[in-house]
Amino acid sequence: MENWQNIGRHSIKEARSRIDQLIHWTPVLRCSAINKLAGCRVFFKCENFQKVGAFKARGAANAVLKLNKAARENGVATHSSGNHAAALARAAAEAGIPAFIVMPETAPQIKKEAVREYGGQIFECAPNLSAREEGLREVVNRYGATFVPPYDHCDVIEGQATCAYEIFEEGLQPDILLAPVGGGGLLSGTALSSQFFSPETAVIGAEPTGADDARRSFMAGKRIPQENPDTIADGLLTSLGELNFDIISRYVSDILTADDGQIIAAMRLIYERMKIVIEPSCAVPLAVLLINKTLFKDKEVGIILSGGNVDLSRLPFR
Amino acid sequence: MENWQNIGRHSIKEARSRIDQLIHWTPVLRCSAINKLAGCRVFFKCENFQKVGAFKARGAANAVLKLNKAARENGVATHSSGNHAAALARAAAEAGIPAFIVMPETAPQIKKEAVREYGGQIFECAPNLSAREEGLREVVNRYGATFVPPYDHCDVIEGQATCAYEIFEEGLQPDILLAPVGGGGLLSGTALSSQFFSPETAVIGAEPTGADDARRSFMAGKRIPQENPDTIADGLLTSLGELNFDIISRYVSDILTADDGQIIAAMRLIYERMKIVIEPSCAVPLAVLLINKTLFKDKEVGIILSGGNVDLSRLPFR
Q: What does the UniProt keyword field contain (chains A, B) (predicted)?
């Protein structure tokens, strides 16, 4: 396991400066109708407005820009069917280096197009983890590219930590900060930033009931991999990473869950009241808040809206 | 016809101060992907983030707050099935006066709920213009309420003019400003503000092909009412108002149209690239821009996104 203890107050600030040319300082929005419904003061950190449409742009940019000159020449590689693939391809393109992306042949066409649009080279593989890992090994061996994993990696976590850093840097000091958890890149980064820049803020993870390995792992004190995840929150299907689990165990107060019906209701509320487009994954924190109102009553609560990449022809509203 | 010549530089500024407590100063957003596609520099004035989800909050607030004390006591009335109904009900509630809203019995449940939520009293009528006008007459006679029309009214136009005023007040001076046109409240207000605060800016109206009475009236030099409108842009079905036509004839450079397919494509682009929720009506300006690229080439173009009240279960994306 890498030593995440090197991520600190100073290194997160440095990471924010490093990636400044590649990412947006995303806005914070509030909505009086949602405050009224929730019984507390909520603000939303809008990573759906981030480059590539998700916070993933931060970690990928940080990892690419931290590569030394020799490593840069051979480019970067990853296996991913989601936002990390596009984020890495874009960060590599901005740095002028190649990106090799192993994607399951069943990945949505729109995700493949996003990677190609940023100049990433796609290598298709069978849609299972061992084929993806095998594909990645081949690409790394053939091109000497550096593997940048989607979440279980110090530079990626440090990059994702810049999101909560922006919140605190703006002078906001929420009582509670809620972030969704899948692999745990965003949640672990958020927990570290809170620890360094606003230690009074409690960080809580929000997870779909149908993929609740982070909650079960958190409770058991050891990683329990997710088997057969089943949820509309398609960005949160993966199991918690090793580094991520270690950080989350120490610095996160709790992990709460919501089921798909509750997630869709929260998602609808954000579309209807805030007039912004989000993916189902980032409605999970608001869903969790709305079904645990007493816990949040009269508090100042920050919610990180992780991304806005959703298939518009398949929105879950009836 | 009222004398709209009383609307001037000073009165628009005053209107903006008058309604300040009731409305948002809405943000201006840009999107590099859309700039690239459009071949010009576009910015979007986001009235979808406005109170009540549409620019209509401005005109209604201005009209209500300009009532004298005696008129206020008897409240306000209108007939509307759309955003103006909710906007007037809300403005009245904020001013502590009653609002009487005549709505066709076929109006969407969600629109009726919005009016009720703001404390408006609904009077249902048959779904045709004469029944609406008859219903309004009755309400006005019975309660002595003041009729606030949706667009053909000086105080309403002056209120809508505060939207473009905000653009210029922020220091933006687009070569072209595009606004959708239905009854013409927004377009006429936009044209007046441009005239007073940025006379070099050309104002162009954007209209659906399936309800193009404003374009036909503009060309003919006289009002030609819309018969059997047929377009997805449900906020732009009405015919151009009298005052609105007079102002538009003088100060608007052109009115361009787009068909429903082009409107839906532009709408999708805004959802996908900007991650914001808009109603079909306010995709018309971007649609018009994208099918007339040479006209806008390398220009700075402002687009007013008029509103975000859309039925999420019936989005036109396939």
A: Lyase, Magnesium, Pyridoxal phosphate
